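Hello,

I think I submitted the thiamine diphosphate job twice by accident. Can you confirm which output corresponds to this input? Input:
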Amino acid sequence: MDKSTLLEWYRQMVLIRRFEQKSAELYQLGKIGGFLHLYIGQEAIAVGSIAARQAGDHVITAYRDHGHALAVGSETKYVMAEMLGKSTGVSQGKGGSMHLADVSRNFWGGHAVVGAHLSLAAGLGLSEQYKGTDNAVLCYFGDGATNIGYFHESLNLSGVWDLPVLWICENNQYGMGTAVDRASAVSAIMQKATAYGMDGKQVDGMNVFKVYEAVGEALQAIRDGKGPQFLEMITYRYEGHSMGDPLRYRTKDEVEKWREDDAIGILERHILENKVAGKDALDAIDKAVEQELETAVQFAEESPLPAAAELFTDIYVDL
Amino acid sequence: MARITMRQAITDALREEMLRDENVFIMGEEVGVWGGTYAVTRGFYDEFGPRRVRDTPISEMVIGGAAVGAAMNGLRPVAEFMTINFAFVAFDAIVNHAAKLRYMFGGQMKIPLVFRAPGGGGRQLGATHSHTPDVIFAHFPGLKVVSPATPYDAKGLMKTAIRSDDPVLFIEHATLYQIRGEVPTEEYTVPIGVSDVKREGSDVTIVAYAQGLQVALEAAAELAQEGIEAEVVDLRTLRPLDMGPVVASFKKTFKAVVVEEGHRSYGIGAEVAARLQEEAFDYLDAPIKRVAQLEVPLPYSRELEQSALINKDRVIAAVKEIL
Ligand SMILES: Cc1ncc(C[n+]2csc(CCOP(=O)(O)OP(=O)(O)O)c2C)c(N)n1
Ligand SMILES: [Mg+2]
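Support: Only one job matched these inputs. Its output is below.
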């Protein structure tokens, strides 16, 4: 992995984490409304996997979507503007935190009905197969989502039709307050893929290198005609499910234990220990990220709210 | 002109659109090898092959959702629910996704798909298989809901639905597949969102659609023998609802009866009556009557089932009450 790639991964992961922390602040100030789900702890998954995609590959995820939006390259200021419900937001202020999308970058959202977007991913895969391209779909979802019917129908269909979909379960150990083994009859989620003809694989989701490698291999397998693939990323969300989570279902010790293997920490150590770059280079990136965020928040705050007439636009293409 | 069944009209529309546009394809349970549960896609699998005529597992959620996903990336799926009763299983895909994504993502995507769903009661299929829930789907902005009553309209509306860049739920009343009507042999379309006067008259306005239209026309024919001339307006599309011809007729007759096969409460009749009093209050000469399904789950036993459904006698009685 060359130096510029590693520094870019580092930049993206720091940007995502700081974006999330900033969002939490803005939420406390009442500037962001609705539900806000932070991605802190899981950054290596979005960054490492999206780095492995080819230009035509699609990305679709659930409501914990800020990291994916930033990793596909959506401009920070437009993402932040969406959080604030501004007309300059990626979804023109109509989607909010849970419904970021940037179709120009093949990023199809941000979906807040658990599991539903797996069916959309199957359709995206079908569309590429139908057109005869070698593009694939990276579809992300939580451990909790593997218990809903959509998951099973979508995986099965992908198996029956050989759809070019890479199913990526971000197993962060909980669906809201319910631990995996309290909701899923098998606690190794990857086993569920077996029923649909896929050899699921578990990956250390805190390690961006392992994520990148596993996703690269899985995408290659899809392009080699081996059908849909399934990866279970083992990870952890450091913050609550959403803002205002009472966190009664886990201990502080548990959180601390996971933090020792922090995704950014792992990459940072790799960079420093292998002398890819020095501390000063990383500090410079941190500073540039701070600057970018500050500009983004200012842009978002100064952006206009959607005009009243926007209420009625885009319900239909033709009416 | 050719005199063909409504089934044939829909078949012809689907086939012509598939020949016209490579991006149009069909997916659903038993649409391919079987030829369609109601034989609408018979022969398609042999003609177009498994790529464009796709048999799915019994998976309504992903039939609905995958159609949306394929549509947003440029295809034009015609996804079939074996009957509208099973579309309930896909309710989320239809109303939360097909109908909402374009708006929620600020216009970044189009969802050009058609959901086909045969529906309706009267075939002794019992409570779970006899719904006419059209109005439920018509409740949601973002979806277009069409339900034709004649072969001519069925063919023209299906073509428009497939070409529409918006998601369309196309409801086919299963008892209408066999009715026959004149259909041009040359190319034509019927616009979505345009109601149509199917019979002229000056004494009372009967508003109906789908199977209700056939009932209304029967009633109007019998009323004519008694010298009562009913004007019958076919809504054809439930959303967007075109009240123009309804209001125009009402301003002539001052009286209206709304006929629908779905339940009366919160129904099409309620909507049309509300709009008539809003848009033509000064023309109101009598209560607006609603003829609809009684408020019961449909039973199996033939006579019992028929007693809960609309029929021409109930329409005639409603007309006579306000004349
Ligand atoms: C169909 C549906 N049921 C319930 C919810 C409420 N809900 C939102 S997130 C969530 C937990 C999902 O957990 P998981 O899939 O593990 O994702 P994570 O939040 O951990 O990223 C629940 C129950 C929902 N949004 N949709
Ligand atoms: Mg989870």
